Every structure is written in C-alpha cells, then in structure tokens.
Amino acid sequence: MSTPKRHLIIIQDRETQFDAPLYATIHQQDVFSLELIYSTVHSSISHHDLELGHAPQWDHILANTYDQRTLPSTSPLQIWTLSRQLKARQPDLVIICGYYPRSHLLLALLLRLQGQRIGLRSDNTLTHTSFTGWKGPLRRLAVSWIQRLFDCWHPVGEQAQAYLRQISGTLRPTYRFAYAVDNDWLASNAERARQGRHQFLQQQGWPEDAFVVLGIMKWTPREDPLTLIHAFRRLLQHCSRARLVLIGDGPLQKAVMTACAALTDVVTCPGYSPYSQLPLWYGRADVFVHPAPHEPWGVSVNEALACGLPVIAAEGVGAAAELIRPGVNGDVFVNGDVGQLAAQLLNLSFCETPQAARAAACRATADHWHYRHSINRLVQALTPC
Q1: What phi and psi values does residue 99 have, to the nearest 5 degrees?
Q2: Whole-number percent of the chain with pLDDT over 70
Q3: Are residues 126 and 214 in the same domain?
C-alpha cells in the first residue's frame, strides 16, 4: 500500500510576491498536499498599499497555480466554523502566519482546544520589538503564552528564532520557513538584463564604466530614500562615474524630487516598477542599497543577491544580519549614517575583485535561502517524530 500524502494547510493574511511562487512550486512538485487560506477578505494582488498610495503590481504571480481560497469574513463565527472544518479534514499540520490579525490568534486557540497540531510562522525579532512602559511586562507575558500555544515554530530566520526562544522561555521543534524569493527566476532575468547594460548606459548618456547604484524602496520615512540620495551626493564628489537609479513611489515623492533636482544628469527616477521588471534593474546595477532603519526583514536583499548584486544595507534591515557578509557580498552601515554609507559605496566602486567573482559570492549566499530549503523544512515538519 502507498503511503498517504502529507497534508499541510497554511493560514496567511494575504498573498505575497515572494511566497506565491513558492506555493506554486510546491503544488507543481506535488511532494505533499498544500492548501492556502487567506484571511484578508479582499484580493491580495489588488489591495491598496497605504505607504505606496496604490496597489502593488505583483504581475509575476500567475493565477490558479496552487490551491487557495480567501475567507468571506473573519468574524468569530467564521473562524469557529473554519476551525471545525480544518479539524474534520485532519491535516498533518496547520501553520498560522503570525498572531495578527487577531483572527489568527482565535483560530490558533480553537485548533489547540480541538487537539489539532499547529505551527507558528514568525518574523518578530528582539531588535524590532519593544516591551516598554507599564504595559510592557504584561504584553511580554501575553506574547510568551501565545508562543507556547503552538506545537512547532517556523521562524523566518535566526533572529526570529532567537526571539521565540527568549520571549517564550521554552523550546519547540523548529523548522525555518524563510522569507525567500524565486532565486532562479530572478537570476535568469537579471542575467539577460545585464547583457543589455551597455545599451541602457548609452540611452541614459552615462559612461561605459559607470558605477550604478540602485535603490528600490517605498519613498517613506520607514525606508528612508533620502539617506541614500545624500550619501550618493558625497560619493559623486570622489567618484565622478557614479550614477543612481532610484525606483519607487510614496509620500516622500516631493522631498525625493527636490533632493534629486540638481542631479538630473546622474540620477534617474523611473517611478514605481512592476515586480516583473525588477530583475531588469538589478541586472543593470553594480550595487543595491537598502537604507531602511526599521525593516524586520527586507526581501529585496534576497532579490539583489540572487541577481548577483552586492548589497549595502542599514543595520535596521533584518536580512542584513543574516545575508550580508561584509567585504564579501556587501556591507552594513549604521542607520541614517550618510558618511558611512558613502564611504562603503566608494570602497566598492574601486573594488578590484572581478564582477563575476562578486556575483558568484552573492548568488552563493542567496542559494542558502533557496525555495528548495523551505520545501525540505516543511517536509520535515510534516514528518512524524
């Protein structure tokens, strides 16, 4: 008799640009049965991003590539009904992505009471969490209790794992469920774009040996595009071949345009870019900068490295601590430190390491976060001890 296929159900707020290709890959490989249930009532692709001011264009996500559905509501009655439905189907594991929105926490409680095995996917870190004020100790106690509800943990990285262990004061079987991207798709498209870099430079009127700095971000204080612009100004004083491509949009648009007004010959701001076009920009650049002072992860770091592009990131970017190896595939600077960022960019602009060697080091790091590792960890989580 054949062994029954393992069954995994994942509860997630909404579809994301980096998880959807993973779920499609799992469905295609048919290693185990996967079902996604999204708790946000409206469509994930068309949702309005408050920071951008419009819906993100995740046009690389194909429809109907994996089993998914969206809850009609998140009322207590709907969540209670869902818990009964899930329990009746007897999945091997239900992974709940975070305990916010609160409907996720209610579902976890109900499933726990019914004896269903549940896992917690978490991206919280000690660096990005504060339990201050007179309510701080109470909040920490509540979070510890919530974490203990789950049979297993699925942190997105080492920092998230440390958070779970320290706050809960206990241990659970742990299987990393990373914030990863489609490395293969990004790398192949970036390589094709790199072959056309010469034509791009000509179109911009930039020199053949231009040192192209790339920023892709929301133009918000949280992601801090102005620090990058100010650092680029300093870089330009010592590296006349430096050029800046700044992709994005957001409430700081006027400030960004003002800061770039005197740099029209050396800076281009194409605006917001659909996801399918991002490899094009990664392939044309020499370095990617992520200046956000408060970003729990930052999948654009994964994206750039997968495209063979060194990354310089602020220390507030969670991915920086786990993906960037200073002097090998990029560097890390103090949040908002314009001088340090400018110096790191200058050092890289005169780096004697061949571009091919730098790209190989970047891709090697990205490979540790390849989808196949996420799939392997999920298979392990589904396998009885």
Answers
A1: -105, 25
A2: 95
A3: no
